[in-house]
Amino acid sequence: FFQAEDGIRDSVASRGLGDVYKRQTQCLLEAAKNFYDYIGGPILEHIGLLTIDSIKKIEEEDIALICLEIWSCICDEEIERQEKSSIDEPCKNYIKTASGVLLPLLLETLKNYTKDDENEWSISISSACCLSLMAKILKDVIASPIMEFISANISSPDWKLRNAALLAFTSILNGLEKTQVSILIEKALPTLIALLQDPKPQVQETAAWTFAKIAENASEVFKKVEEFDSVMAHLIPCLKNGPRISNQVCFAIHNLAESLKPQDKDTTCLMSKVYQQVMQALWENAFRVDAFAENVSLAQSSFAALTNVIQYASPDILIYLNAVFSMLIETFVKTMHPTFSNPGRAQDYQGLLCGALQPVCIKLGSNLPLEIAGNVINIIIESFAYRKGVYDEGIIALAGVITAVGNMANPFAAKIYPYLGQALQSPDDTILCRAGVGLLGDLARALEDKISPLLPDTIPFLLRKLQNEETERNLKVSIISVLGDLASATGKAFGPYLGDVLAMLKSASTLSTELQIDDDPDSVPYIKALKESILESYTGIIITVKELQTTSILDPYVGDLFQYLNILSGTEHADTLDFVKLLVGLVGDLANLYGKKIQPLLIAPFVSKIIDLLKKSAVKEYRQLANWAQKSVSLALKPQHSLIQDNNAI
Amino acid sequence: KMESEGLTGKKTFSAEEFKERLVKNGFSLPDMNEIKAQKEFQRQKKIKATKEAFFAMVRGKYMAEAESSADPESSMISDKEPEEEKKDKPERVHYAAKMQLYQYLDKIPSDLYPKWLMYAIPEGTKCFIIACDGATTLRDKNGFFLMKINTLLPNGGGEVKGKAKTILQGVYSKRDNIIYLTEVMMWADELLIDGSAEYRILFIHTKLKEKVALFNTFSGENEVMFRAPQIFECSKSNLNVLYYGLFMQIATPASLPSLEGLALYIKSHNLVALLKLENAELTNPEVQKRICCAFAYDNTGNPYLKDGLAFIHREGVFFMGYSEYALQWKDHLVSPYYDSILQTPMIAYLNMSREKQLLTHDGFIIDKTDPEIDALPAGKVYKFAYTNMSLSDPYAKLDDLKYLGPSNKFVWSSISHLTFKLIAKRNMLPYHIIFQQIEMQEHSFVPKPQLTFLILSD
Asked: How many CB atoms within 10 Å of residue A366?
């Protein structure tokens, strides 16, 4: 291969055949990806020579990018092997060998900031990418040369160098130990803040992005009051800068809110201090004139930050939430009015406002006054009329209100039903249909048996939808799960549909065990979700059967169900306790329901196997569940009329 | 050729692949759709959690139903969860063998009258009750954790009293959810173990009386009721009352309703099988006697099921382990388990000391010749079977001693446990002998001349 390589190389020495050369590099990339074990020694040298040469000649950017990707792939492989540390696949430390040449080269490339608006920062960002991967592998070894580079360039008069220093700074965040990183950031903080006001907008953007990265990966520094204050004081005004910078600031706030979220018992957190200020700034930002700039949707990122700030807020801001709530509702009403400042984007804003309403509702929970909840529902319904149809964000917001109000939601239910029907029946919009199914589940949990008038129409429709081959498969999973919710919520009223639903579940469970994991990597989580929803649905149905006081409908399915549980307990899904807990719960339910009648089924070895497995869990609830199931099973297995003697007394 | 073979079917390094790399390593802005998907994922997770909580709630409800309809003995509270046990270990060792335990009555003390008190031991789990730091913990004599509840004991969850600690001993009846207090070691940091038994018992009764209404209601603050058995002086008339329960009084037809009350109690608490009253007729005097003997009365005047009689020396101080001043005695009328205990083979739990001696809890040395037993590691408790025994203080010989296996007990057998079954099987200490002894002691009792201090006034 490399002889051929050299041949091609010689023949294209003039670089007239750029395309051939590019494909050749492409081949090298594939080789590096797939043959890690074979590229050591002289071959690595070869690769080094070829790629380093190409990276240096940046005028052919495409090829340089592929060469960087080659090194990134080798890094990926080594990181994976370091984590696994298995003897069969040892890490051969190619990167360590190559770092002497590679590191200076990458640092040099960082300076080549060739940005245009269409592409994101390409070559310099790609080398920063590679550098961060290298830092993960080499850790401390690489830190000091990079630090030297940073301190040499961070206050350079050339903005490209300042920018490169910033990029280098973020790329080593992941590689070092947390305490080291904290010390580093603490030292660099004044400089970083100063760079937020850099004369060059590109540098400002990178600085804001740096803050977003720090907030995501190393937020410990901001947990100190002084640091937090000074950072927020400088970040918030930067929202007013150009869209690209403002966008990065939004994400910095987005990440900060999440990483500074209060712990379980905290009544306050750092964010509360600046809460009003941040909310105000984000709100203005979302409605500024260039909120929907090309490539950058400031409205979206502002709302994303806003939602996170609300979602992770501490209890002491509850008092402001009502104000936020009314602000959201007022604006929502305005969007439907012809005088709205940005009529072309009214629908976008409605979606965003709905998206923000949901976390506020959930945060308020039972504190949400009923009349306000009714008001919100009315307004959302009004917007359905305004847009001449339902939309997914609206349906999700309705679900949020219903969840918050809980079993007091009954008065509003009748108003919602027609729109729920519209959402479920939307023929070609699966997202909308999924939102509808989600709303149905929330309604079932909130209203419990009061939802039973809905059953005669809904259940046959959902069953038809499941039989339809055109229905999207993830939607089917949601429908199976919601049938269980309806069963456990309505109890006796579900009785007439039990036969059909059980028959469906049986065929679905057969299907789920026959499905093969093909080349499609997405099908793995899909099959797991399918099995989970089937198990959940069975659990809900057993509650119904229990309330019916007769098990005759379920009887013919019990043998198959045990068979299914047995198969599942042997699959790879049973490695995760999240899944095992569903199996154990179901076994316990059946033991409880049938008692001695299913003794022969309960003595199957898999029953005690999964219960024992769950007993070892670190989660207390799981252990409780396992003990409960074991108790149920042993009660069912116990011979009648035995009298345990008080051995303690002897 | 290369064009067609080498590159067909393979993607070239495209802008998408480049973007994928950036996203993967966090060098690109998060995609809005991804954030949305993440939010949806969080929502689903939350829904799953609510569902789980709901299932747990329903399952708890059904379990309670199943338990109440099943055999009440089937789920004794001492079936512990193994991990609870594991986690519990250090604390368990701390609390093990700290209770005052009853020896079996093997010979009758010569001063039962007037130096001893007696009460009927309630049926249930003998336990330690520790109230501190806003919760009340129950442990059995081996230190095993039984449960944690809120009670109105000082600092026991219902009532906050600084850092005060209260330690009691009693019997927990799962059937009625009542704790019958029998001993107090510490009350709100006041150490009482040096007081006499009479003083401690009086103390409990006074404390219960202070808040009799509160201790007898279930609430979130008080999850079990607290009562105490009625205490009697060891006189022959009292012994009759305690042994026969109401039987002595119900000979007259006027008090029959209370017998019916007991019959109702038996039915509603599923005690028919335990007391072997299937097909028994209430009009039969033998059955009436059996029912009445099975119950005694607590400080509030309500009946409870007996499990033997306890004899306590008035002046005995608190003693951890088997005390010579706290005795128990049983027969088939006062203990529902008596018959079944007699039917089980004789089992001894013995400790192998560091000196390789096989010891009872009160220090008797057991003869051993079996090399298998000799080889057992020291410092642990083992289970043995035997058929007969002979005693010569401090040695005891158990016939046909057979090793059965290790035991996790911290409180092993005392010598009175080993002799109890022999005495019981040969019926060496029936009720009438105790009665006669007390009658004799009462008859021959001469009050000692008491010293009188004369305070002379001028």
From this structure: 9
CB nearest to A29's CB, from B13, B71, B141: B13
CA distances from A316 to A269, A270, A278, A321 (A): 9, 11, 16, 10
| C-alpha count within 13 angstroms, C-beta hemisphere, residue A586 | 28
CA distance B328 to A330: 79
Length of chain B: 458
Q: What residues have CB less than 8 Å from A574, skipping those under 6 apart? A: A568, A580, A583, A610, A613
User: A410-425 and A392-405 are packed helices; what angle lies between their axes, rounded to 10 degrees?
Assistant: 150
Measure the CA–CA gap between B344 and A645, rounded to whole angstroms.
9
Asked if the C-beta of A623 comes within 8 angstroms of chain B's C-beta atoms, the answer is yes
The count of other CB atoms within 10 Å of the CB of residue B418 is 25
Shortest Cα–Cα distance, B330 to chain A (Å): 11
Tell me which chain A residues have a C-beta less than 8 angstroms from the C-beta of B35. Answer: 304
DSSP A635-648: HHHSPTT-----GG
Distance CA B409, CA B417 (A): 15
pTM of the model: 0.60
Question: What does the DSSP assignment read for A168-211?
Answer: HHHHTTTTS-HHHHHHHHHHHHHHHHHHHT-SSHHHHHHHHHHH
Say if the Cβ atoms of A132 and B30 lie within 8 Å: no
pLDDT (tens, 9 = 90+) of chain B, 458 residues, equals: 344 444 444 445 566 677 777 777 666 666 667 777 777 777 788 888 888 888 888 877 777 666 655 444 333 333 344 444 444 456 677 777 788 888 888 888 888 888 899 999 999 999 999 998 888 989 888 888 888 888 888 888 876 667 788 999 999 998 888 999 999 998 888 888 888 999 999 999 999 988 888 888 888 788 889 999 999 999 988 898 888 887 666 554 445 557 777 888 888 888 888 888 888 787 888 888 888 888 888 888 888 999 999 999 998 888 888 888 899 999 988 998 888 888 888 888 888 888 888 888 888 888 887 888 888 888 888 888 888 888 877 788 888 888 888 887 878 888 888 888 888 888 888 888 899 989 988 888 887 766 666 555 54
* CA distances, A98 to each of A47, A173, A347, B315 (Å): 10, 21, 54, 87
What 3-state class would DSSP assign to A236?
helix
Chain B CB contacts of A608 under 8 Å are none
Nearest C-alpha neighbor of A406 from the set B58, B54, B38, B37: B54
Helix, strand, coil abundance in chain B, percent, nearest 5: 35, 25, 40
Q: How far is B356 from chain A (nearest CA, A)?
A: 25
Q: Which two tokens stand for residue B260?
A: 């019916």
- Taking CB atoms and an 8 Å limit, are A445 and B126 in contact across chains? no
Q: From CA A627, how far away is CA A621, in angstroms rounded? A: 10
CA atoms of B106 and B273, how far apart (whole Å)? 30
Give yes or no for a contact between A332 and A379, defined as CB atoms under 8 angstroms apart: yes
- 3-state DSSP assignment of residue A118: coil
Contact A168, A107 (CB under 8 A): yes
Cα dihedral A5, A6, A8, A13 sign? positive
d(CA A177, CA A283): 37
* A 398-457 near B (Cβ less than 8 A): 438, 441-442, 445
State how far the Cα of A446 lies from the Cα of A399, in Å rounded to an integer. 10
Q: Which of A29, A128, A645 sits opposite B337 (nearest CB)?
A: A645
DSSP calls for B296-340: EEBTTS-EEEEEEEEEEETTPPP-SEEEEEEEEE--TTT-TTHHH
CA distance A650 to chain B (A): 7
Whether A72 contacts B20, CB under 8 Å? no
